Amino acid sequence: MRDRELERKAVGITATMLTKCLRELEADGLVSRTRYSTIPPAVEYALTERGKTLIPAWSPFTAGRRGR
Predict the structure, then answer these.
(1) pLDDT in tens, the chain (68 residues)
(2) CATH placement of domain 3-62
(3) Is the pTM above the cut of 0.85?
């Protein structure tokens, strides 16, 4: 998911805090970050295999947010 798309979907969080959280998740091996050398620069985040193992645990928390 592109960084700007995440910012639009993450209601109630500043871009700075979102970036901090994503960097921490990356450091923990839960998300991967790909930087593209385009103009303007683009960054894409994806769940790693380790991060995907957490999907079942988070599903109950996100069930009501789908489709928003």
Answers:
(1) 777 788 888 888 888 898 899 999 999 999 999 999 998 888 899 999 999 999 888 888 777 665 55
(2) 1.10.10.10
(3) no
